[in-house]
């Protein structure tokens, strides 16, 4: 019982230390998941207590970078929730066409799967050339992977299936070349992509956008941090811009529920009202 | 028996029928919230809440991210996301790696609920062909809560209850109908 209490105290101290030292703010992340990830890291780093981990993290920035890989969750896939991308294609793209140029923000882009999915969809709809995509994340390693656009060949079959269900019109293999068990994404897909370090917890808006995609990021935030993120999206989006979320995320019950209206509710596509 | 603020239930293979029996036997006016993880295929639309609702008197909802846990309700985890309980007694979803090939994982619900409710939690592990839930149930006990394991002889698949029994000694080893009776008696003394 005492040791469990101690662990909870130590976790709060570690998160505070990370904020003070490295300016990464996990203080308003959902507690249950962050606790599991810290305890998982503890075992990987062979630390007996969270305090021991904190000492190493405070005194060794390299150690913090390693811990950051555990604190963020790089679980992603291309055309994840195909119905979502199908709805984007059918319901949102016709409206996006009405703007002469487009800016799209993919917030929490992780290792880039969402970015390439979006770029492929836009190319097939003839919109990629007039679009700038901002792909942001707090994890520099993830951003680096996203920029490289190299994924395991093993995943491609599943992605191909997602792509087809999402209304894909070509052969998915046209978008990558395979080498040494890897799929290397067509680099022209990211010609108009700017990858940048950005935190929804501490940074502010950097551009006006027509569409913000932030999928399976907000579930890791508590309500107040969710509201902060919704505030940034609302500020960034132009009049009648689009907000697209993960399959279990919604603006309902947030402080911004009145500021957005559902466009395709089951696919979590909202529009600034 | 002392009162509980929540009941958590985990099940896998054979779990739908087992949940029918356990949840179907809850008495009218049973106010303690019940949170369930049943292992599900990883597709997006689960009918579990609707299916259970047909046989259960009280409202059954699929757990929604950030929803506050309310008395009198039964929550079931949807597919493809882990379900946790936060310190403020709200629900949260996450997409960490599967545990024992399972997402939602019973261990994650049990462990996080134990952290939130501590000694005021009752954990119930039912039939299943998987070791998920055993560690979480032992953790509930460690945090001062009470634990129930379905009698492996009564379980459609004994592996899950046996894995739990190998890890800790629960407060009760009961048949499904015994678990229903226990939950009923718990409510009357909790008020």
From TrEMBL, chain A:
User: What GO molecular function terms would the record report?
Assistant: S-adenosylmethionine-dependent methyltransferase activity
Tell me which domain of life the UniProt entry assigns to the organism this sequence originates from: Bacteria
The cross-references to InterPro entries, in alphabetical order and at most eight, read:
Bact_Chemotaxis_MeTrfase (IPR050903), CheR_C (IPR022642), CheR_MeTrfase (IPR000780), CheR_N (IPR022641), SAM-dependent_MTases_sf (IPR029063)
* Location of the CheR-type methyltransferase domain: 1-261
Q: Which SUPFAM superfamilies match?
A: Chemotaxis receptor methyltransferase CheR, N-terminal domain, S-adenosyl-L-methionine-dependent methyltransferases
Q: What is this protein called?
A: Chemotaxis protein CheR
């Amino acid at each position: 019982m005492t040791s469990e209490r101690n662990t909870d105290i130590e976790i709060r101290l570690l998160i505070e230390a990370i904020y003070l030292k490295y300016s990464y703010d996990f203080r308003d992340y959902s507690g249950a998941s962050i606790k599991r990830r810290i305890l998982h890291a503890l075992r990987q780093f062979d630390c007996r207590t969270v305090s021991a981990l904190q000492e190493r993290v405070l005194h060794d920035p390299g150690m913090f970078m390693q811990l950051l890989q555990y604190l963020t969750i790089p679980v992603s896939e291309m055309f994840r929730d195909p119905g979502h991308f199908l709805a984007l294609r059918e319901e949102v793209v016709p409206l996006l066409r009405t703007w002469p140029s487009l800016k799209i923000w993919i917030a929490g882009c992780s290792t880039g799967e969402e970015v390439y999915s979006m770029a492929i969809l836009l190319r097939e709809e003839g919109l990629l050339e007039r679009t700038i995509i901002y792909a942001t994340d707090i994890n520099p390693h993830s951003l680096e992977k996203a920029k490289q656009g190299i994924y395991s060949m093993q995943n491609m079959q599943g992605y191909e299936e997602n792509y087809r269900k999402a209304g894909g019109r070509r052969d998915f293999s046209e978008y990558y070349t395979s080498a040494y068990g890897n799929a290397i994404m067509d680099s022209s897909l990211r010609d108009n992509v700017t990858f940048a370090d950005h935190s929804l917890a501490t940074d502010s808006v950097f551009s006006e956008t027509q569409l913000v995609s932030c999928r399976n990021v907000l579930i890791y935030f508590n309500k107040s941090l969710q509201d902060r993120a919704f505030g940034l999206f609302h500020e960034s989006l132009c009049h009648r811009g689009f907000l697209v979320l993960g399959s279990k995320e919604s603006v309902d019950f947030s402080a911004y529920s009145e500021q957005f209206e559902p466009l395709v509710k089951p696919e979590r596509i909202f529009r600034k009202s | 028996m002392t009162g509980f603020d929540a009941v958590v239930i985990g099940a896998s293979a054979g779990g739908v029928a087992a949940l029918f029996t356990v949840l179907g036997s809850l008495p009218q006016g049973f106010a303690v919230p019940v949170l369930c993880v049943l292992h599900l295929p990883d597709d997006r639309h689960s009918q579990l809440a609707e299916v259970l609702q047909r046989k259960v008197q009280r409202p059954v909802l699929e757990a929604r991210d950030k929803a506050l846990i309310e008395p009198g309700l039964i929550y079931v985890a949807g597919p493809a996301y882990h379900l946790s309980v936060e310190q403020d007694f709200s629900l949260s979803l996450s997409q960490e790696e599967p545990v024992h090939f399972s997402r939602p994982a019973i261990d994650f619900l049990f462990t996080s609920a134990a952290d939130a409710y501590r000694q005021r939690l009752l954990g119930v592990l039912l039939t299943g062909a998987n070791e998920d839930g055993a560690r979480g149930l032992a953790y509930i006990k460690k945090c001062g809560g009470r634990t129930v394991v379905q009698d492996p002889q009564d379980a459609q698949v004994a592996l899950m209850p046996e894995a739990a029994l190998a890890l800790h000694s629960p407060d009760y080893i009961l048949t499904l109908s015994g678990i229903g009776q226990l939950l009923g008696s718990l409510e009357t003394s909790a008020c």
